[in-house]
């Protein structure tokens, strides 16, 4: 059994390194990132987030030393995110949810707001994406609390994952028209709550799914 486990570890290491090099990363950088990815996986954390971060940095022409520092920092943030979620009552968060939580925490979204998003989402995939959407909305200038409320309210009113993923585009459209970031959040929240469905992990369902937010 020990030999089989070691063999599987070697195969996974080779696979990760090969995938990184296939995306263009130099061999030395791919090897360094692979070490971090394997350490992350060994802690039961989502190693794919490490790979994605490295590839993103490489395509943005970030120097290798900074990419290595960034993936090590991300590995630590993933561990903190899992601990925070457990403290908030989410004991069995999936890798995707942990990665989304790390994104949300980096943008100042509070643990309680993250947990609310997770509970409102119908499944783990939606929860993970919703956390990242909230983080993206903060980057666009909407405050962390409102960003989280937009995602939570969307899921609670029966919006699909595709509609939640459209929130940053809807916010950007309003911003392009000159709407202040504060007003953007209010208008989107008003549009979401204009009709009502309550779904998500609470198991309560009311009226039919409302249409997506539409920006004139």
Task: Report on this structure.
With 216 residues, the chain is mostly helical. 71% of the residues lie in helices and 0% in strands. It is built from 11 helices and no strands. It has helices at 2-22, 27-42, 47-59, 64-87, 95-106, 111-120, 124-139, 144-156, 161-165, 167-176, 181-193.
Short description:
The protein is an all-alpha fold. The protein contains eleven helices and no strands.
Range of strand content: under 5%
* Count of strand segments: 0
Number of helices: 11
Distance between the termini: 62 Å
**Inertia-based shape:** globular
Mean residue pLDDT: 85
Q: Point out poorly predicted stretches.
A: 1-11, 196-216
The helix/strand series, from N terminus to C terminus, equals HHHHHHHHHHH
Structural category: mainly alpha
Which percent range fits the helix content? over 70%
Alpha carbon gyration radius: 19 Å
Q: Could you describe the largest sheet, including whether it forms a barrel? A: none
